[in-house]
Design a protein that fits this description.
Immunoglobulin-like; six-stranded parallel beta sheet; alpha/beta; single chain
Amino acid sequence: MNRIRITCLIGIFVISALSFPYVFAESGDIQVEIKYTNGDRADFNGLKLVIYQDNDKMPILQKMMERNPEVISLPVNHRYKVEVFGNGMYADVGYVELKDSFEKLVIHTPLTGGLKFIIFYDDGQKPIQDARIIIKSYDGEEWRSGKTNTNGETLRYWIQPTIRQTDYYILEIYLGDLLVHTESQIKLQEGIAQDRKITTSIPKIVDDLITVSLYNSTSQKISNKDGVFSVILENSEGSFLKKSMVNFRGDAYFSNIPSGQYTMSVLKDGEVNSDWDSMEIAIIGTNNNFEIYRKNIENVKNFDDMVEEKAQSCNCIAFRFDDVQDYWLNKVQKEYINVFTEESVPVTLGIITDSFGNDPIITDAVKELLKNNLIEVANHGIGNLPLTDFTKQEQEELIQKSIDNIRKILNTDSSVFIPPQNKFNNDTTRVLIDKGITHLSSSLVQGDTPPFPLENQTLYRFPEITSTGIFDAEKKMFVGVNHEDTFSEAMQGLERYGFAVITSHPQEFSIANEGTYTNEVNRQQIDELRQLIQKIKSEEIRIVPISQINIDLTQTHIPYWIKNNAGWWADGSIDDSTFVQGIQYLIKEGIMNIPPTTPNAGTGSNEIPSWIKNNAGWWANNRISDSDFVSGIEYLIKNGIMKY
């Protein structure tokens, strides 16, 4: 028994010694001292030692210096290479043979260089005060930070010069917490004081329209019913700058604001309101749209209260046909759409915009029906990845690309968006509002929760309530359902929410063969669809496109080419007469109403006032609504300021 115990102990000792050889090897000390090339002892702050043993490629030790000189214990009878780095930059190298218990190593590094920044606005003349700067090495590690004075100057920072070609510093400039400028590839010479002028892209004055929107919920802005609101701006010193009243759409506007860090506060009836937190913002011209959400909006009402308060109904049902695309079950898609044409009722087609436009069977059919106003086109995004997988900026790029695709292929704009996989988040809704999308249709199953207001919304949310098919988990396929079941669920939605959206997919109207969808129409399921439509009509329930579910259908929709013209006119790309042609179109189509008593000639000059171009530019960038733009032009014509 004792023999076994001794053997085990010996075994443990051997394993430990093999695992940790330097613990049991004889060690000695190396005293490393760092001096500048002028002989002065170097400041050890920011110095790092990287030590290699013999010919090893991997370092045996890396450590920040805690003193100068620094004593390091290492195994004897080895040759060591000691590299010195200062502020992340390579400084020098030294070699030493540790044969005895103690050796000295002196390494001479270059003198530090002095670096001072003077930071200006985009005009290169006006200095930026109180900008926060961070100096980093090329690997992203932070080494110095500070603030600019009234002249836009930083302190002079004495740091390691960049002697290797691959070494450089990075400067980051912040206003508050917002990164506004990055300067890279900054080189520094030994022993020389450098002044580096940085001209940022930040304007001294932001003369664009700045919009502040107040939200009662994640998608609903406040209205006149909520009270009299205003927004005030205070600068970083707490001094009052400007105040703007909130209009009936829940927006406040500012312009000609000096770039800088500000605090936004919400007033109700002239007093700071505790329901709204103050918000720190940076106004620098890159983001001119800000949103403030009322506190605890998720806890304002419970679900039952929301349902009980529902008193409005459109008495309508909308059909939504998802996944419209080229070449895939195109005969099935076309047959589905034909049912609505034959029944003389509208349907909203969810088009996957990057997979549409080349197949004449489906594309030509959609174009023809769209021209005759028999269908509504919805933007079903790009690809099938949920937008919730992307950042807000990435979502904005994807949504804009999908908008451009629809314009290019169908020469129209869509006001309805169906998110891929029915998933969206707050970033999605904010981007949609910025892009002028007015209706979002997702799914109750994917978490879109009530209430779903039917009026006074910037972005309406009308999710799928029921469907004409379900996904059979056992068969792993979409299968159609009886029209009576779909009708029953639609009526429940109509009773509970005041509307219903019925969703269909091409698969459920296709004949499946051994687990594969074929491009052959399932006549039985098409007949179920027809019976569903006829039953809804027999109950005197309106069938409408998704964009017409809301009960306040007074919004003005203007063809996108006129909005493009407005933007081009604002930046001088087209002349006044071309812009006026668009105005004449609006009058001809009845979108803009000019009283018969208003003379065409007006009383104004032939030249349009230049300030009107600002409004046109704001409208082109979705900073004011179609209705606001039309109202403004009507006013100008009625008062003889502008001719048509």
